[in-house]
Design a protein that fits this description.
This protein has about 130 residues and is of the alpha+beta class. The chain has a single domain, classed as Glutaredoxin (3-Layer(aba) Sandwich). About 40% of the residues lie in helices and about 15% in strands. The chain has a four-stranded mixed β-sheet with strand order 2-1-3-4, sandwiched between helices. Strand 3 and strand 4 form a beta hairpin. It starts with 12 loop residues before the first strand and ends with a helix. The N terminus is likely disordered.
């Protein structure tokens, strides 16, 4: 058997939710360059391959899980009690489980809307 290695092309991507006011504010504040592909996760949910790319950068599905997702509360789940595989499955199941926004830029990743995260992204984008 012959196996071919698949190369993942590095791409600058911004995953967000179009209806999220926080994501809208961050997009405006970051002044994203046109070179960054913007993906609305409600219209185009993450594929397993995209999630794997995020995982290789964070080394944690839990770090990508939105602990404030309403669906977690509705199911009686706590993010802190979920395994990595449970976090992965939830993120693939429904777009609202992804902590957002997520920016991959020049091989760096910024996850979430914490002030320090947004400031670090701003500094990386614009110096």
């Amino acid at each position: 058997m012959i196996f071919f290695a698949q190369t993942i092309v590095a791409m600058d991507i911004f995953y967000y939710l179009k209806t999220c006011d926080t994501c809208k504010r961050i997009i405006k504040n970051l002044e994203l360059p046109d070179s960054i592909k913007q993906i609305n996760i409600k219209e185009k949910p993450l594929t397993p391959e995209q999630l794997n790319v995020l995982f290789t950068k964070t080394k944690s599905y839990s770090a990508l899980l939105n602990p404030r997702a309403q669906l977690l509360k509705k199911r009686g789940l706590k993010a802190s009690e979920l395994s990595e595989q449970e976090s992965k499955a939830l993120i693939l199941e429904h777009y609202s489980f992804l902590k957002r926004p997520v920016l991959i830029y020049q091989n760096k990743i910024f996850v979430g809307n914490a002030l320090a995260t947004v400031e670090a992204a701003q500094k990386t984008l614009h110096g």
